Amino acid sequence: MRRRWLAGITMAALLGLAACGGGGGTPAPSGQASGTGGGGKQQVEVFSWWTGPGEADGLKAMKEIFEKENPNLTFFDAAVAGGSGDKAKALLQSKLQADTPPDTFQGHAGAELLGYIKAGDLEDLTFLYDELKLKDAFPAQLVEQISHEGKIYSVPVNIHRSNILWFNPSVLKEAGVAAAPKTIEEFIAALEKVKAKGKIPLSIGSEWTVTHLMESVLLGSLGTDAYNALFKPGADWGSAAVTKALNDFAKIMSYAGDPQDDWQPAAAQVAEGQAAFNIMGDWAYGYFHNPPEGGLGKKSKTDFDWAPSPGTEGTYMWLSDSFTLPKGAKNRDGAVAWLKVAASKEGQDAFNPKKGSIPARKDADAALYTDYLGDALKDWSSNKLAGSVQHGVAVSQPWLASINESVGLFIGTKDVAALQKGLVDAAAANAQ
Amino acid sequence: MARKGGSALRRARAWLPGLLLVTPSIIAIGVFVYGMLGWNFSLAMTDKHDEVSEGNFVGLQNFVDIWDEPRWHLSVNHAILFTVVFVLGALVLGWFLAFLMEKGIRGEGTFRAIYLFPMAISFVATGIVWRWLMNSGQDERAVGLNRLFDVVGLPQWAWFRDQDWGMAAMAIPAIWQMSGYVMALFLAGFRGIPEELREAARVDGCTEWGVYRHVVLPLLRPVTLSALIILGHISLKTFDLVMAVSGKQIITDVPAVFMWVAVFDFHDPAKGATIAAYIVLSVAVFVIPYLIWSVRKERRS
Lengths: 432, 301
Prior knowledge:
The complex is a heterodimer.
Chain A: H1 2-23, E1 42-47, H2 55-69, E2 73-77, H3 86-97, E3 104-108, H4 114-118, H5 126-132, H6 134-137, H7 140-146, E4 147-148, E5 151-152, E6 154-156, E7 158-161, E8 164-167, H8 169-175, H9 184-196, E9 200-202, H10 207-222, H11 224-229, H12 240-253, H13 263-271, E10 275-279, H14 283-289, E11 305-308, E12 315-319, E13 321-324, H15 332-343, H16 345-355, E14 358-359, H17 372-382, E15 384-387, H18 397-413, H19 416-430
Parallel strand pairs in A: 1-2, 1-3, 9-10, 12-15
Antiparallel strand pairs in A: 3-13, 4-5, 6-13, 7-12, 7-14, 8-10, 8-11
Chain B: H1 2-44, H2 61-65, H3 70-102, H4 108-116, H5 123-133, H6 144-152, H7 166-191, H8 195-203, H9 208-219, H10 221-236, H11 240-245, H12 255-264, H13 269-300
Helix pairs in contact in B: 1-13, 3-7, 3-10, 4-7, 7-10, 8-9, 10-13, 12-13
Subcellular location (chain A): Cell envelope
Family (chain A): Belongs to the bacterial solute-binding protein 1 family.
Protein name (chain A): Probable sugar-binding periplasmic protein
């Protein structure tokens, strides 16, 4: 009898454990934030993936402005760590599905938000753009590229540039390359010269950095207008021009070094003189330039230098972090107050020098942006604009996932025809 | 009549408390494990290929269609290679460690603890350390194991970045982590074999190797089977280790990672559910025969 009791208890305990293991994750408390904070102050839950050095400082600077301007509101930082927001986006997905959105969340401006828009998760922000005259403050092409069916769903806080060719001046000199290559042909010739010297011609990181490289090569080979047209309804990804661009890409990839863990070690190979070139977004500048711990502490123009990626001079391939207004936000007024700070000149000038990006607004205080950022600010107001693929401007999340899959398979097979077919299928399934 | 009622009550007293104790767990498991499994299978049989659409029943369409995708073949092949290397590696290494222990070396307890410790670490932590150890840089760029191999003059490897054998390298941290556990299983198995049996074999003129080959190994079959099942099901649903070592890259894609990408990047719930269903089925292939076998064995004894 007693033995049976014991068996019963053990059994129950085991089953209980198993149940916890299997189902414990489901009813987990998702967002106990939001609502009223202490002292009668209203809390505003701001969801982002800004936890790294620089970006977290920038967010803090904006928070201070926000709380100064809105004494009755407190800022609740709901940031989830992880570069490019993979983990944050997964958590956000479950919050949105449970209809418990944060008051405002970070998202790459552009087509990356399409999924949320179609699911009816986001409010149209046209009223805010009208109230703050943002259509005049931002470049017209930016407003056009983030509009969906005439409506705008997010407020861009910063602008990064994706089509930057980083290079090591002394490695180039040693290889007999006079200046940064201006066309794809010059680029391939320069890669060949570096290869002959036994250095890594082009450093690459994990698979997403290869998609990043591909978007720059597509832009450089096709030209800005043909590139932008690829993301319009009915675009022809099967054209001969795309085939040529992908062949260029395959040729360039044949000069790539061993893939590194992520973009940082790949960029470091250039700054440390092991590799000649790296195509990466301008967040690499902060990594090269900042003192150790946060960066490599290298000297710009001597240890590393930059140019628009080959064939893309005069075009700014942009990407942007933006904030949204989810439908059903608990503290909608607080969220709108946050968006106003995020859109303001004061907010953007506080955030961007720390983050290492430039403001989306055209009226930024130029004195705050020096060295690379000075160049970027100048180009931003004069260049043509193209949207980044890898960073969520030009394509929706499922489309990007398909492109990444095709590129990942290409790295293994080196089959250009299969890559193009994959891109054609991805466009057919996802373009609108 | 009264006596009959009394005996029914007495019988109820025997089983009712146990049942009451277990009921909450049974309900919880019914909802959160089997209910969710059922939900997953029914989702996998719809065309809900984005979060917004309702999804109509399409039968086994998704289960068939996924075989047209080159990436699915790749990730299945990866999972098979990983499973074979990991299960064999952990079994052989675990058996070997137990074999050494069983000889009664000095400080056995310490060694046992040392070999068991890796199991206390999560696969994520293991993965992050091994990502550095298995860095693919070579010669002057070598770090981690390649640096060591460079110094002692062994060949250097691309490790998990190798196009063909990357997943075999991915199994190394898993072997490192689980072989101590397998050792513990085998050690218990070894200890369970009566010394008289070995003695008898030796008396019959069996060599020491022969004792292991013909007496110990056959008696260890149940332990080996348990270890095989445990390792096999860990291996088929491996996710955390791969994510920690390489992230969601195609070169190390496995079904569980593909599932994550399908749900959170492709935003295709039906596809994610299809992959999840395949993972459950592949694990079931391992586990169900084992369950049947152990239930039968219990009945026999």
